[in-house]
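ok posting inputs for the magnesium ion job
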Amino acid sequence: MSPIIEANNVSRTYAGHGGLFRPKSYVRAVEDVSLSVEQGETLAVIGESGSGKSTLGQVLLGLAPASAGDVRFRDAALSPAGSRQWREQRAEMQLIYQDPLAALDPRLTIAEQIREPLDIHQIGTPEERAQRVDEVARDVGLQPVHLSRRPHELSGGQRQRAVIARAMASKPVLLVCDEPVSALDVSIQAQVINTFRRLQRMSGVAMVFISHDLKVVRNIAHRVAVMYLGRIVEEAPADVIFANPQHPYTKALVSSVPIPGKPLGDRVILQGEPPNPAARPSGCAFHPRCPVAVAQCRTSVPELHSNAEHRRVACHLVAEVRGAAA
Ligand code: SF4
Ligand code: MG
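and the output
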């Protein structure tokens, strides 16, 4: 099966703020990222803020052009943003982000907003559109009474359901979700995650699920890619990542997630500054915070190697172990 979306060695660089006496700097928000997501699959992209996850999501949708590398959508090159071909591709991919209030128009009813993409892309007859609104509202767990309300008359969870309904109305094949439940209460988060899972089972939509919250990711991801300062440092099936993380950064992230029925083991507390794309350390960008860094880590960037378990990992020490075992 060919992937729905595929990124090959994608980078995204933008000009930072120069100062009066400072030259313009270039920030590498995403660097040499390759990934793919298949139909019915959820790839979670995790990492702290500043790791480049959101920028990667924008690049996958064509909203931010890649400075190097290429993105393929359903076996075709992603066309430049704004082009007719891109608009056709874009109709099949949807973005959901953190703040449903910002995504919704305060003046329109929920039904009108869910219907909007169908009107824009002229999908179906007016009756079919009305039917689709009812259907997709039900799919996301909205009640018929919600449809005539305006965003401020709904709870945060209901608003995010409305945003999801609008995204799913046109039956996209790809959803990029950027922190879609981060603004919701924890009790509501689980319900909305279940809604995503149900929608995926029903429709086969491929999902890129961007989050800093591993507790959330645990309940939805099939595979997890861990980003640090623009690079993927580890990627593996979700159960493998949680049971046996190998990259020191992943180990630290996973060690902070409580697992029901299991005592918190040796928790790795990350020292040092959180990632700042404008001040990227040399060598392995994680080295100033890495509890097991060696001299080589300061000078040489570890490559992302594949090993068994369908895992990719970028760490000199893990590569050594791998080399020794081979
Ligand atoms: Fe730590 Fe070095 Fe591995 Fe980077 S390459 S994660 S600094 S051990
Ligand atoms: Mg972000």
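notes: The mean pLDDT is 91. The chain has eleven helices and twelve strands.
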